[in-house]
Each structure stands twice: as structure tokens, then as C-alpha cells.
Write a structure and sequence with these properties.
Blueprint (H helix, E strand, L loop, with lengths): L21 E5 L4 H8 L9 E8 L11 H29 L6 E8 L2 H11 L4 E5 L8 H14 L4 E4 L8 E5 L3 H12 L8 E8 L14 H24 L4 E7 L2 H12 L3 E6 L4 H6 L1 H10 L3 E6 L8
Parallel strand pairs: 1-2, 1-4, 2-3, 4-5, 6-7, 6-9, 7-8, 9-10
Antiparallel strand pairs: 5-10
Length: 315
């Protein structure tokens, strides 16, 4: 979700390919990670799948036992973790569709979010698929921070599997600005999903939000302009998506974006929410990224976040 402006109804056609040719899937021994692997079947088959298991080598917490004892402990722990990691990668590979392209397995030592982001950059990954929990055994708070950091810093779209998306029949597509629409249309034009889902295009008009710090509410004139702009934006997006072969309906609702999105999820029961997330500018990440952040945390269904590069993000 990004900002509104006077060009609300104008949606450009982008040429940058977003086809998920290379998919990165972080895996561990959690059911969420296995579900992420299984749900690759909802996508058009990629050319490459990178499976990565990340281990952290524990250090002995009692220096008084001596360095040699601590070294042996770390060696034994690493050996056991590597054996377990090999089993996890082998099982994950067996869960992938046989029609997938080249499958590569990686066993990395490091901090999970840093290792994931580094590999995504180095391998020019087009899409990261991961469970919203997993990738560790310390606490739910720390575990959740892995997916949070990846979704906020990844250089590519991130597919968070919170619930099964197979069969993928319905997608909720919240849009706030033509840039959201451009990237969503481009992504969908590449036919990233194996089947053709029904799309609900949702635009939220923030009537309930004050436009000034003192709490002044929007005037009726501004409400009418926002309503007309929202109608035009969803009409333009619906038309383009229909021309791509998608069955589409549009929804324009007033209210707080995060709340309305959650209400529509509960009403429509989509398998997936597809939405834009701001570029890396600090202002947009803080002021506008909270909508996608809230959606990834509170939506009961899976969420696919499309990130525009900094050069395409609004100023």
C-alpha cells in the first residue's frame, strides 16, 4: 500500500519481468516450512528452486570447563546439526513437484534472516517462499522476527505461507496507489500461478482518518473526490486484469486500510492476499508499510508481498 495522489486513475504498464524463475525456500523441521515447500504447486513451475537450511552453532556457556572441552562440544553440535540439516533438505526436496526445474540444496551457518537475505541477493532470487513461523527453536517472538525482517528487507517479492493456498481460487488485491496497481498487474501478467484465480480488487478510502494533527476530518468535497478517484482506480485495474484473462470484482470501502482489509478477508475467505509493500525509503516504510505489516501479522490466510525497487517507489 502506498500513497494517494492526483494521478489515482493512471496505471502504467511496466516491462520489468517479475516471473518467479528462481525461488528461494528456507526450510527447517517445522510444519510451517514443509507447508511452504508443498505450496510451490500453486505457482507456475520455476526454473530453479533453492532450498536452504540455516544452522547456528552453539557455544559452551561455561568457560571454566576449558577451551578444549568447549571446542569439542561445538564440533559435536555442528556435526549433529549438519546431519539433521541434510535430512531436512532431503525431505523438503521430496515434497517439491517433480516437474520443478533444477533443485539445489544449501546448508548454511549463520543467523537465519541475514543468511536468507544474503542468498536472495547473491542468487538474484525472484521470489522467497517461507512459513510465517519456524526457522528456529528459541521463542515465537524471535521466530516471528525472521519472517518480519525478510519481508521488510528482501530485494524481491516474499510469499508468506500462513495457511494452505492449494487450490488457489481466490485472491484479495488491496491497492492504494497506481504504483501498487502497476506492480500487481505486471506480476499477474506473467501468469505466476498454475491456475487462474478470481481476484477481488480492494481500494480503501480513509474517511475515518484525520488529515491534520488537530483531528480535522475530511470535508464532503474531499470525500467525493476520494470516492471518485477510488472508483476510477479500481475500474482501471479491473479492466486491465480482465484483459489478462482474470475474473475480477472491485470493492471500494471507507475506513482505516488495515481494518478494512481484515474485514474483507473474513468476509471473502481468500486463500491469498496479494499486495504491494513500500520501497526502502524510511518515510514510506514507517508511515505506509504498517498496512502491509499489519496484514502479514493478522491475516489468517497467506500473504504475497510485491516490493517495488527504490527507483520505482514514491518519494
Amino acid at each position: 500500500m502506498v500513497r494517494q495522489d492526483e494521478h489515482r486513475g493512471h496505471v502504467k504498464t511496466l516491462t520489468k519481468p517479475l516471473t518467479p524463475k528462481t525461488i528461494l525456500i528456507p526450510v527447517d523441521n517445522s510444519s510451517q516450512a514443509e507447508e511452504a515447500v508443498r505450496n510451490v504447486r500453486a505457482l507456475s513451475l520455476p526454473e530453479r528452486v533453492l532450498l536452504v537450511h540455516i544452522i547456528s552453532i552453539p557455544q559452551l556457556a561455561y568457560p571454566g570447563t576449558g577451551m578444549s572441552v568447549g571446542h569439542k562440544f561445538s564440533e559435536a553440535a555442528e556435526s549433529a546439526l549438519r546431519e539433521e540439516g541434510a535430512r531436512i533438505l532431503k525431505k523438503a526436496t521430496s515434497l517439491l513437484p517433480r516437474e520443478c526445474g533444477k533443485v539445489s540444496q544449501y546448508l548454511e551457518i549463520g543467523i537465519p534472516p541475514s543468511a536468507i537475505l544474503s542468498m536472495a541477493q547473491q542468487e538474484s532470487v525472484d521470489l522467497i517462499i517461507m512459513g510465517s513461523r519456524g526457522l528456529g527453536t528459541i521463542s515465537e517472538h524471535l521466530i516471528g522476527s525472521v519472517s518480519h525482517r525478510v519481508t521488510t528487507q528482501a530485494p524481491c517479492p516474499v510469499f508468506l505461507i500462513k495457511a494452505p493456498v492449494i487450490p488457489l481460487k481466490h485472491i484479495l488485491l488491496p491497492i492504494e496507489h497506481p504504483l501498487d496497481a502497476e506492480w500487481a498487474i505486471e506480476f499477474l501478467s506473467r501468469k505466476p500461478f498454475r491456475n487462474t484465480p478470481h481476484l477481488w480488487v480492494l481500494h480503501v478510502i480513509p474517511f475515518a482518518q484525520p488529515v491534520l494533527p488537530i483531528g480535522a476530518l475530511l470535508s464532503d468535497t474531499w470525500k467525493q473526490k476520494l470516492q471518485a478517484g477510488g472508483n476510477q482506480l479500481t475500474k482501471t485495474v479491473t479492466s486491465k486484469l480482465t484483459s489478462l484473462g482474470y475474473p475480477v470484482e472491485s470493492i471500494v470501502e471507507p475506513g482505516a486500510p488495515s481494518s478494512v482489509i481484515q474485514e474483507q478477508i473474513l468476509r471473502l475467505h481468500p486463500e491469498l492476499v496479494l499486495m504491494g509493500t513500500p520501497g526502502r525509503s524510511t518515510f514510506h516504510r514507517l508511515a505506509l508499510g504498517s498496512v502491509s505489516h499489519a496484514t502479514t501479522h493478522h491475516a489468517p490466510c497467506s500473504v504475497l508481498l510485491i516490493r517495488a525497487p527504490p527507483s520505482q517507489a514514491p518519494a
